[in-house]
């Protein structure tokens, strides 16, 4: 009996088609990207007039505002990477024939690369949050030492996680495949 039973073939085809259940997740991430855009625009509209106001923002205030905008931008980049890479790795290849604006990394980021980009973005976002925290501290604000300690511990945990993921990928690349 060399042919697969029809039930097995139907089950495998259904299992393969279930990957499309991920598509709504990527639509949700696109909505989240739009939400980030709204917050970014709101922050920009809030800070720009302050920068031009007489006696407006101090240099530290400007740096904190810029860091907030960079933070939102990094989060948006992270969403794009997850959306495009995840969709192409787990659902379907993006058929964009004739599209000249296609980023060069699209279609080349595998799951391992996606993990590394993800952790690198998280470390950058965490670092910016920590820098903002310590810049507020330098302006004379009261700082909760426990909060500062936890901020550093969490950031270092992200850094250590990134190093461990990179080490695991490096070891995996060096070992023979089974």
TrEMBL record:
Q: How does it sit in the membrane?
A: Multi-pass membrane protein
User: Where does the sequence pass through the membrane?
Assistant: 20-42, 62-84, 118-137, 149-171
State its location(s): Cell membrane
Q: Which UniProt keywords apply?
A: Cell membrane, Membrane, Transmembrane, Transmembrane helix
Q: Which domain of life does this protein belong to?
A: Bacteria
* Family (UniProt): Belongs to the UPF0114 family.
Protein's UniProt name: UPF0114 protein ACFPIE_13955
């Amino acid at each position: 009996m060399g042919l697969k039973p029809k039930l097995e073939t139907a089950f495998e085809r259904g299992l393969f088609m279930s990957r499309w259940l991920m598509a709504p997740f990527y639509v949700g991430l696109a909505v989240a990207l739009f939400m980030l855009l709204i917050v970014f625009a709101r922050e920009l509209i809030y800070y720009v007039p302050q920068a031009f106001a007489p006696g407006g923002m101090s240099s530290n205030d400007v740096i904190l505002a810029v860091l907030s905008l960079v933070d939102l931008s990094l989060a948006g980049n992270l969403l794009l990477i997850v959306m495009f890479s995840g969709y192409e790795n787990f659902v379907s290849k993006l058929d964009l024939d004739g599209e000249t604006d296609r980023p060069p990394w699209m279609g080349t980021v595998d799951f391992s690369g996606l993990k590394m980009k993800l952790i690198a973005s998280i470390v950058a976002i965490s670092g910016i949050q920590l820098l903002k925290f310590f810049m507020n501290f330098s302006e004379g604000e009261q700082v909760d030492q426990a909060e500062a300690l936890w901020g550093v511990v969490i950031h270092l945990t992200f850094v250590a996680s990134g190093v461990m993921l990179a080490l695991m990928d490096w070891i995996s690349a060096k070992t023979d495949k089974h």
